[in-house]
Each structure stands twice: as C-alpha cells, then as structure tokens.
Design a protein that fits this description.
There is one protein chain. The chain has 8 helices and 8 strands; from the N terminus they run H-H-H-E-E-H-H-H-E-E-H-E-E-E-H-E. It folds into 2 domains: 147 residues, Arc Repressor Mutant, subunit A, CATH 1.10.10.10; 76 residues, Ferrous iron transport protein A (FeoA) (SH3 type barrels, Roll). The strands form 2 sheets. Strands 3-8-4-5-6-7 form a 6-stranded antiparallel β-sheet. It has a two-stranded antiparallel sheet with strand order 1-2. By secondary structure, it is of the alpha+beta class. It is globular. The termini are far apart.
Length: 234
C-alpha cells in the first residue's frame, strides 16, 4: 500500500491539518477545538465532526474536551501543506511582485490545486528558500523545519538593536500598516527603553532614521532577534 500523500486529502482535511500544526508552531499552549473554530471561522460542532473524520483516518488524536494532537502521519502531511503554502507565498512575492499583505489569500486558494511536482519546480526556481515573505520557515521536502531564534518584540527590555525575524500574517491590514512604517521581515530597528514601567505593551523604535511608536497590537505580531550594539543598519 502506497504512503498517504497530501494530494490524496480533501481541501478541507488539508486545511485542518495545516491549521492544527500552525496553531502550535509558535506556542506551547494545547490546541483546542475553540482555537481551530476561531482560526477557520467555522462552528465548534463542525470542527468536532471534522476532527472525528481525521481521527478515523489516523491523522489526529482527539478526545472530547481535550487537546488536539497530530499523529506522525498527520504531522508529515501538515508540514507538506505548510511547505506548499509558504513556497507559493514566496513565489508570488519574488516572481510576481505581490506585497507581503497580498500573498496569504492567494496561497490559500492555490495550495489545494498544485501538484507535488509543481512545488518541486517552484522550490528549484526560487533557489530552495528557507523563509517566506513574513519570515516563517519553509519546511524542506523531507518535512524538516527549523524555527528561527526570535522573541516577541514586547519581551525586549532596555535599548536594543533588533532584526525582524517574523511578522504574524493573520491580519493583512496590520501588515499594510507596518509596511507603511517601513517594518517587514528583515527590517533592522532600534528599540528604545520604555519611558514608563507600566507601559509594557508599547515600544518606541527607530526605523530608517525615523522614530515611531508601535502600539500593543503592532508589537504583538513582531518577532525579533537582538543584534550587536552597532546602529549602522538603521
């Protein structure tokens, strides 16, 4: 019997596996039906029904009122979908001139229609990229994925030079707002020390010589890595 491939799954099953994996990518919190429902914008009963089918197919482990976990096969297929999605996003940005805020919705449609061979050729065309336009890591064809070393901007205390390693792409309007401030994946910023001890969710930063204040929502979607003390990059 041949090994189950992601192309054998329905678009719905592909989405569920990708979302379950994604909810745990940058978080250690257990993945719940409520979280999946919110991410996919479907009812909890619909999620429960889909999870039962995935469990019957050996792709997830889920007991009512408990966390949802991918089986080894489910994880392999989820990473295959993540790879499709992020490679397509990268192709749209690099080859077709899409902005970071535009690629997600297009990739959501295209990822279900392409073949594995098509993705192999896109990967080769792009030079085997390791990060997508938002900084998210792209799994290899063998399902290897390494998260970049990064912390949330709100966790940076004191004055520090940082590089943006990831921008959460859940909200396209937020991406546009940050792009207008000159902030995207690989941007260097100088984070200034908070003026008030209780102002822990906002950050003053200097980007390309301009000092701006990022509100709590903007800070929440930025993951950064601290750099050397040099400020030449900004």
């Amino acid at each position: 019997m041949s090994e189950l491939q992601v192309s054998h799954l329905s678009p719905s099953a592909q989405n569920y596996l990708k979302v379950i994996w994604g909810l745990g990518e940058w978080s250690t919190s257990p993945v719940t039906t409520t979280m999946i429902s919110g991410k996919l914008n479907v009812s909890k009963p619909a999620v429960s029904s889909a999870l039962r089918r995935l469990a019957e197919d050996g792709l997830v482990v889920h007991d009512p009122y408990r966390a949802v976990e991918l089986t080894p096969v489910g994880r392999r297929l989820a990473l295959a979908m993540v790879r499709r999605h992020r490679l397509i996003e990268t192709y749209l940005a690099k080859e077709l001139g899409y902005g970071p805020h535009e690629v997600h919705d297009e990739a959501e449609v295209l990822e279900h229609a392409v073949s594995d061979e098509f993705m192999t050729r896109i990967d080769s065309k792009l030079g085997n990229p390791t990060r997508d336009p938002h900084g998210d890591p792209i799994p290899t064809a063998d399902g290897v994925l390494v998260l970049p070393k990064a912390e949330r901007l709100v966790d940076v205390t004191g004055e520090s030079l940082v590089r943006v390693e990831r921008v959460d792409d859940s909200d396209p309007e937020m991406l546009v707002a940050l792009e207008q401030l000159g902030i995207s994946f690989e941007t260097h910023m100088l984070v200034h020390e908070a003026k008030e001890a209780n102002d822990s969710s906002r950050r003053d930063v200097t980007v390309a010589g301009e000092r701006v204040v990022l509100d709590s929502d903007q800070c929440a979607v930025l993951f950064v890595a601290r750099q050397s003390s040099s400020t030449e990059a900004i």
